[in-house]
Amino acid sequence: MAQLSGSEPHALDRPWRTWASVVVLVILLSGVLLGVLIIPVVQGRGAGIDAFTAICRALGILPGSPAVPQIVDRTPPTPVSQVVWTPEVLRILADAKPERGRAKAQEVCVACHGEQGVSAVVEYPNLAGQSGAAIYKQLSDYRTGSRTNQLMTDIAKALDETTLADSREVVDLAEPLVAAVTDGAAPIRWHTRTRQGIAPTFDVEALDTTAAGDAFVGAWLQALVEQGLDATNAAGFFASAALAEPLRLAAAAGALATTRHGAFAAMPTRAQVEQLLGRGP
Fold first, then answer.
1. In contact, 248 and 200? CB cutoff 8 Å
2. CA 222, 223, 224, 229 torsion-angle sign
3. Helix (H, G, I), strand (E, B) or coil at 198
């Protein structure tokens, strides 16, 4: 029987190598055909894009997706803000007249942003907590087109530079209605625009104070809402409402949060707070 030479076994594998190469090439070409030609053209047709543009987008030659029309922004480019805090601008702001600013705020601003700088409508932002310089900057940006809003643009363009500077005094509408000062185990001091007082704290064995502030604020807000506070009655509410009981609840929640380690894990339940207050089981 004749024996195969050393090279002949390799010759037997050649058809399989050829077929394997053909299969790989077919899969590769199919993927290219699908990804670069067929799918982009079909998607582009549905989006109203011609075949050539869709293929170019799929290849990365043109920007955009072959499945979505490219939005063309023809708005002239403008800086994010044209306000520059030069000595002259700072002088104008320093010379602003609070009386004129408050009068202009009552005339123009309170209808949308609320008498206390807290809007009752979610579409209008709150002015409470914003600085006068920030309000001046935003109005200036509306005047120059760096920010766009049809209503605010018209209002800002109607203001001259002096009135614009005076308008920074609209921040007076946003003075805090209430403040509470905590100091560890010391009594809590609270202040409104017309009243002030103190609220006791609780004697606990503190392990970790990480969550104390969050627990205090969360419980305080919950208690105030339960008493009837909302965005429409804040001024009158803090002028007359009893604040001692909400602060007592907040103090209990803050105290309990210090008896455990961690942040969220240290938050007490309402039942635990009520128990510390002596009202629970």
1. yes
2. positive
3. strand
| Nearest alpha-carbon partner for 38 in 26, 50, 51 | 51
CA distances from 69 to 36, 47, 58, 117 (A): 17, 6, 13, 41
In angstroms, the CA 186 to CA 89 distance is: 45
Single-letter amino acid code for the residue at 169: E
The 10s digit of each residue's pLDDT in 143-191 is 888 888 888 888 888 888 778 777 766 655 555 678 888 888 899 999 8
- Tokens matching residue 5: 């030479």
Query: Are 251 and 199 in contact, with CB atoms under 8 Å apart?
Result: yes
In Å, what is the CA distance from 199 to each residue of 153, 156, 219? 47, 45, 15
For 67-108, what is each residue's pLDDT tens digit? 777 666 666 666 678 888 888 888 888 887 877 877 888 888
Phi, psi of 153 (to 5 degrees): -60, -45
Distance CA 93, CA 132 (A): 9
Q: If you ran DSSP here, which 8-state letter would residue 105 be given? A: I
Q: What share of the chain is helix, strand, coil (3-state, %, to 5)?
A: 55, 5, 40
pLDDT band for position 8 (50/70/90)?
Answer: low
| Upper half-sphere CA count for residue 32 (Cβ side, 13 Å) | 6
Could you tell me the pTM of the whole model?
0.46
Q: Are 252 and 202 in contact (CB under 8 A)?
A: yes
* Both tokens assigned to 31: 């993927």
SS3 183: strand
Report pLDDT digits (tens) over 232-271: 777 778 878 788 889 999 999 999 999 999 999 999 999 9
What stretches of the chain show up as alpha helix (H) in DSSP? 8-32, 39-46, 51-59, 87-94, 98-104, 110-113, 132-144, 150-157, 161-166, 212-226, 234-240, 244-257, 270-276
